[in-house]
């Protein structure tokens, strides 16, 4: 268990540049990593490669715009928290890895309270999200997305439903 929450470690340019890879080099037995509230803006693709035994990865409340970190080797991962970031979508590599992990056991991914987009460029992501959202072993916690024209949509059951915002 490693809790590095609330330390603003993402403010350092060196952290983003090295992508945490050196920090986690010898932590191959680590099962829980809590990095919430750290102003992390970027994680490199290989930054968590050494953490093959991770069960919980908490990146809640950071400044991540994207998440294209290799996680497919984390076959024990059961909870990934990416909520309260500024994610616009998950990469295809990420959703393929999420599906792979969920073939082994139940897996929850929290992507609530992000800046998820739901335009034409995100069709593959939205189609994937619709397909797997609450399938047997995989639970995606998801709130809403925004179309480029400003319309806000929520995934309700099997369809996107427009949310009507009340103007003051």
UniProtKB/TrEMBL annotation:
Keywords in UniProt for this one? Leucine-rich repeat, Repeat, Signal
Q: Known Pfam families for this protein? A: LRR_8
InterPro entries cross-referenced by the UniProt entry: Leu-rich_rpt (IPR001611), Leu-rich_rpt_typical-subtyp (IPR003591), LRR_dom_sf (IPR032675), LRR_TM_domain-containing (IPR050541)
Q: Name one GO cellular component term.
A: plasma membrane
Cite the SUPFAM superfamilies for this sequence: L domain-like
Query: PANTHER family, alphabetically?
Result: ANTIGEN BSP, PUTATIVE-RELATED, CHAOPTIN-RELATED
| Name of this chain's protein | Trophoblast glycoprotein-like
Which gene carries the instructions for this protein?
LOC115219626
């Amino acid at each position: 268990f490693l809790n590095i929450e609330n330390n603003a470690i993402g403010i350092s340019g060196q952290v983003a540049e090295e992508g945490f890879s050196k920090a986690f080099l010898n932590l191959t037995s680590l099962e829980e990593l809590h990095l919430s509230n750290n102003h992390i803006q970027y994680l490199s693709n290989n930054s968590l490669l050494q953490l093959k035994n991770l069960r919980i990865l908490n990146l809640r409340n950071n400044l991540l715009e994207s998440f294209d970190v290799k996680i497919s080797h984390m076959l024990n991962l059961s909870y990934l928290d990416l909520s309260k970031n500024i994610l616009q979508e998950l990469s295809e590599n990420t959703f393929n890895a999420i599906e792979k992990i969920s073939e082994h056991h139940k897996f929850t991914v929290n992507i609530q309270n992000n800046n998820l987009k739901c335009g034409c460029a995100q069709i593959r992501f939205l189609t994937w999200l619709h397909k797997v959202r609450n399938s047997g072993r995989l639970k995606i916690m998801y709130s809403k997305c925004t179309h480029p024209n400003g319309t806000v949509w929520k995934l309700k059951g099997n369809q996107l439903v427009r949310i009507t915002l009340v103007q003051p």
